[in-house]
Amino acid sequence: MNGTKGASRPLLILTNGKPDFNNGALPTTDAARAGFADFAERAMGEIAPYDPIVEIWNEWNLGTGTRSKRPGNPEDYVQLVKATYPRLKAAFPGSTFLVGALATDLDPIPFLKREWVWLGRAIELGLLDNGDGLSVHLYNVCRPRHERRPSEQIRRMEALVELLDAAKPGANYPFYVTEVGWPEMMKGCGFTEDEQISFSGQFLLWATKFPSLKGVWLYELKDSGVDPDNLEHHFGLLDFHYRPKPYFCGVSEARTILDGARFVDERVGPGAQVALSFDRSGDAVSAIWLAIAGDPVPFTVPDGAKARFLCETATFKEGEQVLLRERPLIVSSGFGAFFAPMPTKAEADD
After folding, report:
1. Cβ-Cβ contacts under 8 Å for 346 (sequence gap 6 or more)
2. Which has more confidence, 144 or 199?
3. Omega of the bond leading into 184 within 30 degrees of 0 (cis)
4. Buried b (16+ CB within 10 A) or exposed e, 77-94
5. Among residues 329, 317, 323, 318, which one has the least CA distance to residue 298?
6. pTM summary value
7. I need a surface site. Which of 4, 176, 185, 343 has the fewest CB within 10 A?
8. What is the pLDDT of residues 207-229, one digit of tens each?
């Protein structure tokens, strides 16, 4: 973390129940909320020189940061941010304060499959008027196998943007994905190394289509333990001994592709094909993949272009045929405006 203003912006969380208020439970009384606001203002006095982005609490809807882990309701959370945000903003007007930090937000009645229910109620109570942006966590780690893909997360983000646009028409209300990740394990809810590379690359590239998305944070930098049966120990980009995992490559290469790039176009074709186009100072880059695992689909590298799968060394030249799969195929051209053509249905059926 660099202390020079503007050189970096750490994401910090103001959270955790305090023994002096509600016996360490969520601050849901007037006295507890006032105590938390006092703590938040004192903490900001220490960290403000680093120009942080600051979340007000973490996963309130799960009760995270308390002894009981009892889920908190939106009514109490909105009261907390109403007691805290105005004080912080008045004292530190140049800082960015995020509300929400929501864990997965699904309807408690499973068969309804409604999403952002908790958030919808919080918005009705004035949540968005008491923050500079909304933060969410977008895991799908232990969902049914067919839902554990970036396409599911992108669909949830589309629903989120629709909700924010309805609440704040024309405002392009900013949101931040402050946790997302794909832990590796060969059983249970984990992902294979190939899935980690493919899914992290897909997500980071695909998420750029949302203009109001202001940042994505991967959870987490390094593994927190070595127990092979503990999923929580295996979210890191680095292993417990600080050695980069193959997963690190997917994130790093996607970040390099996006450096200086501008999202141009998204197309979805037959066979769950996804094609994204980016402009990089007049040069064009496209990313193409299959959003759902299935039979590989043939793709011919266009004239004047070359292609390479994310984190693989083999390069394909113009005119060569490549079989698309879940791993993003990066197609680049130095000849200005270029859109990688989707395979035709006839090509896909051959």
Report:
1. none
2. 199
3. no
4. bbbbbbbbbeebbeebee
5. 323
6. 0.91
7. 4
8. 999 999 999 999 999 999 999 88
